[in-house]
Amino acid sequence: MAGEAAGLPGGQRVNGGQIRLVAFDLDGVIYRGSLLLPHVPEALADVERRGFSVRFVTNNSTKHRREVAEILRSLGVPAEPGQILSSAAATAGWLRAHAARTDGAARVLYVGERGLGEELFDAGFQAVHALEAELEEAKRADFVVIGLDRAFNYDSLARAQAALLAGARFIATNGDTTYPAEEGLMPGAGAIVAAVAAAGGVTPTVIGKPHAGLAEALQEDTGIPASQTLLVGDRLETDIDFGRRHGMRTALVLTGVTTQELLAASSIKPDHVLADISGLPGLLDRLSRAEGGG
User: Fold this and answer.
1) 242: left (phi > 0), else alpha (psi -120 to 50), else beta?
2) At what angle do helices 154-165 and 189-200 cross, to 10 degrees?
3) Is 25 a catalytic residue?
4) Is 269 in the same domain as 197?
5) Which of 25, 239, 241, 271 is catalytic?
6) How far apart are CA 167 and CA 69, in angstroms?
7) Total domain count for the chain?
8) What residue numbers bound the domain in which 50 lies?
9) Are 18 and 286 within 8 A, CB to CB?
């Protein structure tokens, strides 16, 4: 099922020729919680057979890229850490590019889980979790970075608020208010970001989908322009809007949070809609024929 053509911010999409990169969301596309979704190995093998580059692009900030790759391999999905682009990794990269102190001495107070902390440490920042910081230490932070944190509590909120009120810059890994799990929808990082924003009276810079930070990181990592990228996702307001904003082609799979009813009611329309990822090879065939590729 074809939807509206995706667009660049100016309403035009660059004609970039054939697809060279397929970027997959994870939750709701490749797996749900700890369960691999049907038809994923076959679809990924088809993409690899065609010679396309593959990236897994996720707003999940709780795990380091190494751990995400290990999880995928344990599910039978070949993946290397270099193929993973998470909102945590993209946030660390954004901070490297935007921190005034380029000597690695920028101080980051973060609310998040181990993966976010490891990405920040790997990027060379003095990163301390909000629950491990004294109040005065929190006030000296240059940045406050918020991701999903299932240990989030009032003390976390108070330390983040203190840092923001003292002038720290507010960065959110992503704004997802929910995420899909085996037991249903669970609160996401966006719920915590909203609490910190309310307490600190500051609007964050958001890195993850659908915002520009993750799109810039993806193109920098692969060297492939957005116009030659197919984004496969399950969520309209993050995945599909991400692709539309930044000039990618988009395919929505109905194995995550978006239903036909939600799609019909939304103003955000993908280029293509697939019941599940088993329809991806057929879509790639159609795109190849349309682009004169056979």
Assistant:
1) alpha
2) 50
3) yes
4) no
5) 25
6) 36
7) 2
8) 21-59+210-290
9) no
| 191 lies in the same domain as 247 | no
Q: What does the block give as tokens for 228?
A: 């030659």
Q: Which residues of 11-30 are buried (b: 16+ CB within 10 A; e: fewer)?
A: eebeebeebbbbbbbbbbbb
Q: Are 137 and 128 in contact (CB under 8 A)?
A: yes
Measured distance CA(208)–CA(174) in Å, rounded: 4
As a whole number of angstroms, the distance between CA 283 and CA 278 comes to 10
- Domain CATH code at residue 26: 3.40.50.1000
Q: At what angle do helices 280-290 and 40-49 cross, to 10 degrees?
A: 30
Per-residue pLDDT of the chain (294 residues; tens, 9 = 90+): 333 333 333 333 433 459 999 999 998 999 988 899 999 999 999 999 999 999 999 999 999 999 999 999 999 999 999 999 999 999 999 999 888 754 557 999 999 999 999 999 999 999 999 999 999 999 999 999 999 999 999 999 999 999 999 999 999 999 999 876 777 788 999 999 999 999 999 999 999 999 999 999 999 999 999 999 999 999 999 999 999 999 999 999 999 889 999 999 999 999 999 999 999 999 999 999 887 755
Query: For 62, phi and psi rounded to 5 degrees?
Result: -85, -20
**For residues 88 and 147, is the Cβ–Cβ distance under 8 A?**
yes
Note whether 110 and 130 are within 8 A (CB): yes
Cα separation, 125 vs 95, whole angstroms: 9
For residues 219 and 138, state if they share a domain: no
Q: Among all chains, which residue has been given the structure tokens 């101080």?
A: 107
